[in-house]
Write a structure and sequence with these properties.
Blueprint (H helix, E strand, L loop, with lengths): L1 H4 L8 H11 L6 H8 L16 H8 L24 H17 L1
Length: about 100
């Protein structure tokens, strides 16, 4: 994803797992279900991995997790701004595309 979109300066998503663990420690969530929801293997041994996790049980446990308050979700979206290229930028882009075509 980072290579394709050229995104830099972003920590890996496993940071969310650390945040999840930190917040869950303040709840009464069962550790084996916390492991399951976090994508970790249970530390309770092989027996803890038997059986399937039922959706109602997971929903009940997930309800113990506090909700994030994100103020930006309560605001209307900002209007999209289109960046206009200068005539020099357009000419440079055309020249670059032409050079790529001739090189291929």
């Amino acid at each position: 994803m980072r290579d394709t979109l050229k995104i830099t300066g972003v920590q890996p998503n496993h940071g969310w797992r650390h945040l999840w663990r930190e917040i869950v420690r303040g709840t009464k969530m069962k550790p084996e279900l916390c492991d399951y929801m976090c994508g970790h293997e249970s530390k309770s041994g092989t027996g803890a991995r038997y059986g399937k996790r039922k959706v109602p049980v997971l929903a009940k446990e997930l309800a113990l997790f506090p909700r994030f308050k994100v103020p930006a979700l309560n605001r209307p979206p900002a209007p999209l701004k289109r960046t206009r290229r200068s005539p020099q930028q357009i000419a440079a882009d055309k020249a670059e595309r032409a050079a790529r075509r001739t090189a291929a």
